[in-house]
Design brief:
Elements: H1 9-22, H2 24-51, E1 59-65, E2 85-88, H3 93-100, E3 106-114, E4 117-123, H4 132-153, H5 158-165, E5 171-173, E6 179-181, H6 182-215, H7 221-226, H8 232-272, H9 279-289, H10 298-323, H11 332-359, H12 365-368, H13 372-384, H14 390-420, H15 426-429
Parallel strand pairs: 1-2, 1-3
Antiparallel strand pairs: 3-4, 5-6
Length: about 425
Amino acid sequence: MGHNAFSGWRTVFRFTWVQSLKTTKIKRATILLGAVLFVGAMILNIALSLSQGPSPIQNLYWVNESDLTGDFSELNRNARFSHVNIYEETATREELLERLAGTDYDVAVFLGLEDDVYHIEAVLPKGSRISRREAQALTEALRPLAEEYRLQKANVGEQIAAIAKVKGQVQIIEVGGAVKGAGELWMQILLPMIVGAALYAMTMLYGQTISKTIIAEKTSKLMETLLTYIQPHALIAGKIGAMVSLALAQMGIWILCVLLGLWVGDLIGDILNPNYVNGMMEALRQLRQNGGLSALSPAGVILSLLALCLGFLLYSVIAGFLNSFASKPEDLSNTMGVFIAVSIVSWLLAYVLPVYTLLQGGNVSGILNFIPFTAAFCLPADILVGRISMGGAIVALALMVLMTILFIFLTGKIYKTKVFYRGASPFGIITKNR
């Protein structure tokens, strides 16, 4: 393994890349799925904007069955319900519902008191075209008004009432550490799941393709000739490197299609509904304020993306390593089963164990970040939420690089032995001295 141990890998890389791009299957899949993701993301944002438009409710008839005083006229301050006509009723529930039967956009609201608990009940008449979701949004908008009436009944002063309305915020402080907001706790639970699921989906989507690439030419006489001029690990590095880079480029195009679709949908949504508030952007802003993305800096994002790409490369090499034991395509089902099992176990360890200990007040992700198999799934998210230092992240990345190189050499050794010694035992391949 001299300085030219990987000599020739670039030639293999270019050849595999060009040959893969020539296939119409890859081009068709990239274009079709990209178009579907673009249209889907655009429609999603447009649908969200329309859902925040004016409520279809036209008339609200409310009956006060409690001891609170006040009315729901302040509901008109809400842009979504500013057009609603509000009428106070003294009729019984049965009489009101019978009178409203057959109306399209009317709703009956009852403010009641039961077991010392005030509750708001929105009832849709028979034949109403108002959805249950719209009725639920109405009750959510009315709840703060009922709370104000309750405070007024208790003769609470304005200052105390203002204090009572203040929303609480959860913060956890570790000795010698920084404050952790609720947003950060949620991101420490959700982000590893999202990143881990994305990496798992990528390995499952491209793992079999990479495996087929590894064994496709194993029985070819051309391989026997080629392996006399190039080191097997260089051949494996070029082949897997080309497939991984092609997969990452494909995933990058799809992500750009999603982002572009969200942006176009947001523009159209603003036109259709000027009061539209993008929920995803608002959620990111809230998480940023609450410390949910405390490490969202350019350096953190770059390291996180690098960890994600390196994790995908590592598992692609592992797929090549396991499937290099296969002598023919029919054997892939057995070796792919081992690869899937390794991937699932690593993902579960990287996600379930840290979440469980986090809910119990502990933290084990620091250890898992330095085990390459689990680091591939948890390191990218931990970098983003600031659960690992930049120095620690660099060390973890270095360990993943070393593990990837090790598997490349092992895969090359097995590959060469399988080509020249067909039928050799897998248990003696690694130790064979050639």
